[in-house]
Amino acid sequence: MFGDPIDADTLDGEAIVLRPHWQYAVKRSGVRRSRMCCNVSKNAAPQLHAVASTWSSCVELPVQRIFLGIAADLGNTIYGGDATDAYAHAPSPNDTYLTVDDAYMEWYKKRFPGKPISRKYVLPVKHALQGHPESGKMWMHFIDNILIKEMGFKTTTHDRCIYRKVIDDEVVYILRQIDDCITQCKREETAKNIFNIIGTKMRFESEKEKGIIPFEYLGIVKDYNGVDLKQTSHYIGMSCESNIKRLYKSHNWEATISTLDIDVEVNRVQVQYPSELSINPEIDKTSLHPSEENNKKVLFPKALYRPN
Q: Containing domain of residue 276, as a range?
């Protein structure tokens, strides 16, 4: 991830130096994660914003629905996979360095006793950092090189997040939302092999030595990109119930969850916001009122899962 620490005074004027911060999260699976990110605000990194090209590929909603329609038409099953620390496996965008913090100092002194280190040192960034404005672009180039150039998948000019290939007379499609991938095919073994090949081609040298494949196989998909999926032998059902329930929970509206009305067949989503404030005085009252942002959160899953 990083090169050996060097003295910041030795850098030229073109080098971009960022400040680190640690991100802690609990995934939906319950797994706790911590990772070093970078502070790329304009105040913290004005030089970076002057040269950075900020964009990343995200699947368009019509293309996602087309993918599901193709799966239903061909009678394919959709399987999921997730790249582990995706950005960290992509190359660094440019001549970038990260300042040393107390956590790194403590780790370095234990790992390399006797080697010099100080807060004046910086770390050469060898791979894309979470939070860097160009990391999404670097990841897209990295994963496209694996899927298209090395594995022989084809993508489209309109949307760069859907891929197709025929493997042993079996038509295979992949849909990618950043690092969350789903593939549709006839045989589960095909999906496992594809995800295993991607992970094998992503690996660091240290992961090769330890036999680690940085790509998790998730099995038959039950939800993807905000959509609940019900896969049967006759149809693929879509709904947004889980998404809206998470919205209710985030605003402490569980008591009114019975007012949620979802009808997939007539493409109708009706949400009644609570008319009374929560009895918990510690909750900010403004978070309990409907707002433009909350309305967007409700309209998003409606647009995402509509069957037309």
A: 240-305
Render pLDDT for 7-64 as a digit per residue (tens, 0 to 9): 676 777 667 777 665 555 666 666 665 555 555 555 555 555 555 566 677 888 889 8
Residues 38 and 169 in one domain: no
d(CA 120, CA 36): 19
Residues 105 and 246 in one domain: no
The 10s digit of each residue's pLDDT in 129-178 is 776 777 788 889 999 999 999 999 999 988 889 999 999 999 999 999 98
